[in-house]
Amino acid sequence: MAAENSKKIFLGVFLILLALVCALAAFYYLEARPEMVANEQTESDVAQLPAEKSVDQALPAQTAKASTNKSKENISLKNLVDKAETVYGDEEKQRKDGFLWFDRGSSKLVVTLGAVNGLTPGSSLAVYDGNKRIGKVKVDVPFDIISYVQPLDGSADRLTGDYYRVVME
Questions:
Q1: Region 70-82: what's the mean pLDDT?
Q2: Is the domain of 1 the same as that of 82?
Q3: What is the mean pLDDT of the chain?
Q4: Residues 6+ apart with CB under 8 A from 41
Q5: Which residues is 150 bridged to in the sheet?
Q6: Which domain holds residue 6?
Q7: 91 near 81, Cβ under 8 Å?
Q8: Which of 57, 67, 96, 137 is least crowded, fewest Cβ atoms below 10 Å from its Cβ?
C-alpha cells in the first residue's frame, strides 16, 4: 500500500511540475512573440535598405563648410517671397489680419502674417482681444506667411491669453 501511495504522490508531483513548465512556456511565448515579430520586421527592413556608399574621410569638413556657406547665400527675404508668391493664392496675399500666438514656453510671439502679406522688419501690427485693442507689436523676423514679433509699449503685460487677433496698420 505504501508503494502504491508513493507512486501516486510521485505521479501527482510530476504532473504539477509538468503543468508549471507548460504554463511558463505558454506565458513566455505570449510575452516574447511581439518582440520576435518586431525583430523580424526590423531585420527585413534593414535587409531592404540600399548599401551606403563609401565616403572620402578627407572631404567631409570641406563639404560641410561649403554647404553652410551656400545655404546662407540662398536664404534671403526676397527669394523667400518670390517662391511663396507662386505657392500661395491671391486670397492669402490680400489678407491683412491674422492671429498672434504667444508661446509661453519660449516667450516668443508669432503672427500668421508674413512677407507675402507685405510685412517687413519693423512693420507694426495692432493686437485685439475680441474687438478691444490691447496693444501693438513690431515685426522682428518675417517669413513667408508667419513672422516673429516683439510687443511695443508694454503690451506684453496685457497678453494673458495665448491667441489674439492682429491687424496690419
A1: 62
A2: no
A3: 79
A4: none
A5: 138
A6: 1-37
A7: no
A8: 57
User: How large a percentage of the chain has pLDDT more than 70?
Assistant: 75
Q: How many other CB atoms are found less than 10 A from the CB of residue 109?
A: 23
Number of domain units in the chain: 2
Bridge partners, 133 (sequence order): 128
Q: What would the DSSP string read from start to end of 118-158?
A: T--TT-EEEEEETTEEEEEEEEEEE-SS-EEEEEETTGGGG
| Pair (3, 83) in one structural domain | no
Same domain for 82 and 32, yes or no, is no
In a domain, 109, yes or no: yes
Q: How far apart are alpha carbons 99 and 164 in whole angstroms?
A: 6
At 11 the pLDDT is: 93
Q: Which amino acid is at 85?
A: E
Are residues 140 and 92 both part of a single domain?
yes
Distance CA 47, CA 140 (A): 49
Q: What are the backbone angles phi and psi of residue 100, rounded to the nearest 5°?
A: -105, 130
CA 42 – CA 53 distance, rounded (Å): 21
